[in-house]
Specification:
alpha+beta, Arc Repressor Mutant, subunit A, 53% helix, globular
Length: 339
């Protein structure tokens, strides 16, 4: 996977667009060629396409098909592999809230120009998932936004249950004509020309433990995504350090100097690059341990002694104290609360 200066999208995600075009009886290969894209690269699930060219493809498909429901149709072809290992991490997440946070953290695996595009607002009664197109580079077309929001709802239903319905849905862009398919798909009130593109879910739904939760699959797939991103963008120092921390924590070799050496930079350079992102090595180490600790503690097959070892703690007591500091409960109290 080589470093590119432009923003790119994962081929397995773009495959959904090709399937959507074909489902209307058109030849997606012809549209790919008009957009300057190589249709045969869809056979490689790790290939990446220029997002600028993909945006051209969306425009060509929108104009050819001329159906306001096109974006929703494209989303209907979603499969966990559409999002690389992130799709399986999503399904194995402990709750929808955790799945949303995981997607926001790793969204660059799908589109390197989408960092910061997923945002959240929580109240005591509801949870709002916001998709902010202005954060995406280049800005996506409204039909792309339609597909993205619909895909997120399909993913929610895959994990929570097909009967899941949002409280309401809003889009920033104007009404695209016949909107009946939007209200039928979301099974909720849908409005357009609103301040934000978002859907609202009941707060209890978002935090409810999922029947599909599997902490072992989360850990494995998160590491696959982390390693992928670390190789995809070697300028992303945070992802490189995180990948090395996950790899080396069980060995205990997690000093700043050792991690800097493992990614071939000086300790001073590592400190400077992390500082530019508002981070420190100590903070990143604590955050990584905290997140992995949650995943391990949710797995009833792992003893707390084993978890302490996997996180690089010399004593189980040190792990227990750290976990309570991070999450407000001891490991045993937290495990009891989720099982």
């Amino acid at each position: 996977m080589h470093q590119s200066t432009h923003f790119s999208a994962l081929s397995s995600a773009i495959l959904l667009l090709a399937k959507g075009i074909d489902s209307y009886g058109h030849d997606s290969a012809e549209l790919f060629a008009k957009a300057g894209l190589d249709h045969s690269r869809l056979k490689d699930p790790l290939a990446r396409f220029s997002f600028q060219a993909v945006t051209r493809l969306w425009g060509l498909a929108r104009d050819l098909i001329d159906d306001p429901c096109f974006g929703i149709r494209v989303a209907s072809f979603w499969h966990p592999t559409s999002l690389h290992a992130l799709g399986y991490s999503w399904l194995a997440s402990n709750s929808l809230e955790e799945a949303f946070e995981r997607t926001a953290r790793y969204i660059r695996v799908v589109n390197t120009g989408a960092k910061g595009a997923l945002q959240f607002k929580k109240t005591a009664d509801d949870y709002c998932l916001i998709l902010d197109p202005s954060k995406m580079k280049p800005h996506p077309l409204p039909v792309t936004v339609d597909a993205s929001l619909a895909m997120l709802m399909i993913m929610c239903r895959a994990a929570y249950g097909e009967d899941l319905r949002p409280i309401r849905v809003s889009y920033q862009h104007p009404e695209p004509g016949n909107t009946r398919c939007f209200s039928e798909f979301f099974n909720a009130p849908v409005s357009f020309s609103q301040p934000e593109t978002a859907f609202w879910l009941d707060a209890e739904v978002v935090t409810e433990p999922l029947s599909t939760a599997n902490p072992e699959l989360v850990r494995i797939n998160d590491q696959i995504v982390t390693d992928y991103l670390a190789h995809l963008d070697r300028h992303d120092i945070t992802m490189q350090v995180r990948a090395k921390l996950i790899e080396r924590l069980p060995s205990g070799q997690v000093t700043e100097e050792e991690i800097a050496e493992s990614i071939h930079v000086s300790q001073r350079s590592l400190q400077r690059k992390l500082k530019e992102q508002g981070l420190s090595f100590t903070q990143l180490l604590a955050d990584t341990r905290s997140e992995l600790g949650l995943q391990y503690v949710r797995d009833p097959q792992r003893s707390f002694n084993e978890i302490a070892f996997l996180l690089g703690f010399s004593e189980p007591g040190n792990f227990s104290r750290a976990f309570k500091r991070w999450h407000g409960k001891s490991p045993s109290q937290y495990r009891e609360s989720v099982h």
